[in-house]
Amino acid sequence: MQRACAAALLHEGETIIHNPGKSNDDLSALDMIKRMGCIITLQSNGSLCIDSSEFKSFRNPPLEGREALNCGESGLGIRMFTPIASLSKQPITINGTGSLVTRPMDFFDEIFPKLGISIQSNNGKLPLQIKGPLQPNNITIDGSLSSQFLTGLLMAFGKAATKPVTITVDNLKSKPYIDLTLQVMKHFGYDVVNNNFESFTISPVIHSNNKTIHYRVEGDWSGGAFLLVAGAIAGNITVSGLDVSSTQADKAILQAIIDAGANISVRDNEIELSCPTTGFKGKPFHFDATDCPDLFPPLVALAACCHGTSAIQGVNRLAHKESNRGITLQEEFGKMGIEIKLQDDLMLVEGGTGLKGATVYSHHDHRIAMACAVAALNASGESVIEEAEAINKSYPDFYEHLKSLGVHLSSVNNNEIINN
User: Fold this and answer.
1) Residues 6 or more apart from 134 whose CB is under 8 A from it?
2) Residues forming beta bridges with residue 264, ordered by sequence position
3) How far is CA 377 from the centre of its chain?
4) For residue range 245-264, what is the model confidence (pLDDT) as tens digits?
5) Cβ of 195: how many Cβ atoms within 10 Å?
6) Mean pLDDT throughout 357-377?
């Protein structure tokens, strides 16, 4: 959804986004492109019509009060929209909220001067003060922290390139997310050649001024992963709307669920999961989450219900999320009776010892809140999730979907109480 918003902003003409998201991150993306000149209209069928004709005035003086942009708490938003905003000739301040203000942004300090952009950060953190316009050049970047920086550069280069330019990437992580970016860019007519994820060559394209582009947002495997784990450990449910041929990295949750021995049936647009009447007695599994670190929370909820030690690789990717997720998962699942050990880049989850109801804290992290809620489905007694509204960042309907599946859940003072 966020990538579609960015592509719609850069497209010279109208874009119709079908099946638009409504999470806080999605709303932040819509606010960003609105402030950069888009006119957004909600259609009767729920689709969004985005007219980007005023983006030209954003790129050229004067900005008329639009010099400040706020990405909310979206990591992808700040890393994707900052290069796009740098297409403008005017000074712009870019900020965020919540945990985003503490996350490292020194990538921009290093790369932007090589692209003709002046930048001043707060010691490598927000707010950022930038002044373009971006000048695409052949550059080499470090892809080890996040692929999201590359996503922003690819989109900005696609818009600004006047000759073929190449971005070389060292140690790129989360390659499937770049596949998703390239998929969206191709849909919007951009010409990008992926050289085995080691470099990307962007060629200039000619955009039609009157062509309307239709784009349908896929179902979100990141959020769907929690429902799938819930079905595996507490079923029986059928989840629809997830494309099994998607390039989304978090589709890999299917393999972990299969490895854990869950009862699962996968069809084109439906995934059915069932749980034995005697309860889920899963097998421990080994999973490499280096390229899909957002799967750690649902994987821990799954591993907690498997009998034995499950190993999840990629812990080093967790430090700069909404919370330090390795430590946060260790703390909160420890309250529920599950021991988690962190060994360098490996997380070891001692499952099958019995989950117990407890009062846990989301740390304002949407995925921690959802992981604890899923684990609570197999816990003895009542579980309380403090600051449970954190789920609004990515999946605002999560608790309502659990209720529709028969979970006994009540809300009190921003806390969610789950009775099993």
Assistant:
1) 83, 86, 87, 115, 116, 117, 156, 157, 160
2) 273
3) 25
4) 999 999 999 999 999 999 99
5) 12
6) 97
Does 294 qualify as catalytic in the annotation? yes
Question: Is the per-residue pLDDT at 66 higher than 60?
Answer: no
For residues 150 and 141, the answer to whether their CB atoms sit within 8 Å is yes
User: Position of tokens 């970016």?
Assistant: 181
Burial of 294 (0-12, 13-18, 19+ CB in 10 A): buried
The CATH number of domain 2-204, selected from 3.65.10.10, 3.30.1450.10, 3.30.70.260, 1.20.120.450: 3.65.10.10
What is the CB neighbour count within 10 angstroms for residue 315? 21
> How confident is the model over 359-388, as a mean pLDDT?
97
pLDDT digits over 104-128, tens only?
999 999 999 999 999 999 999 999 9
Q: Containing H/E element for 57?
A: helix 55-59
Question: Phi and psi for 230 in degrees, rounded to 5?
Answer: -60, -45
Tell me the residue type at 88.
Answer: S
Looking at per-residue confidence, does 174 or 27 come out higher? 27
pLDDT tens for each residue of 188-200: 999 999 999 999 9
**pTM for the whole structure:** 0.92
Catalytic residue, chosen from 31, 220, 294, 365, is 294
Instruction: Domain ranges for the chain, please list them.
Output: 2-204, 221-419
Distance CA 47, CA 190 (A): 23
Q: What is the predicted pLDDT for the residue at 65?
A: 53
Q: Which helix (H) or strand (E) holds 177?
A: helix 175-187
For 277, residues 6+ apart whose C-beta sits below 8 A from its C-beta are none
Q: Which fold has domain 221-419?
A: UDP-n-acetylglucosamine1-carboxyvinyl-transferase; Chain (3.65.10)
Q: How far is CA 164 from the centre of its chain?
A: 29
CA 365 to chain centre: 12
Contact by Cβ (8 Å): 50, 33: yes
